[in-house]
Specification:
The chain is an all-beta fold. This is Aminoglycoside 6-N-acetyltransferase.
Length: 78
């Protein structure tokens, strides 16, 4: 789970961008922290760069395939 110390550095958002589930190898539009829906592993990732492939880390059968969801958006000002 992503954590922070200074609440003034983060804000709440209702953007639909947080609802998108990305397949391994897809290229998300936003830089930020992405969390695997199956196991909770988190990665930092840059916009427009391919997410790690399916074999990036191992899952049990119960965890299913690797699927990424953005949990923190790195907003740019300018």
């Amino acid at each position: 789970m992503a954590v922070y110390k200074y609440s003034s550095y983060v804000k709440t958002s209702t953007s639909d961008a947080f609802d998108t589930i990305y397949e391994p190898g897809s290229k998300p539009a936003h830089s930020g922290i992405y969390r695997c829906e199956g196991c909770g592993k988190e990665i930092s990732h840059n916009a427009g760069v391919s997410l790690p492939p399916q074999n990036h880390h191992q899952h049990t059968v119960a965890q299913g395939k690797v699927r990424w969801r953005m949990s923190v958006y790195a907003e740019t000002n300018g």
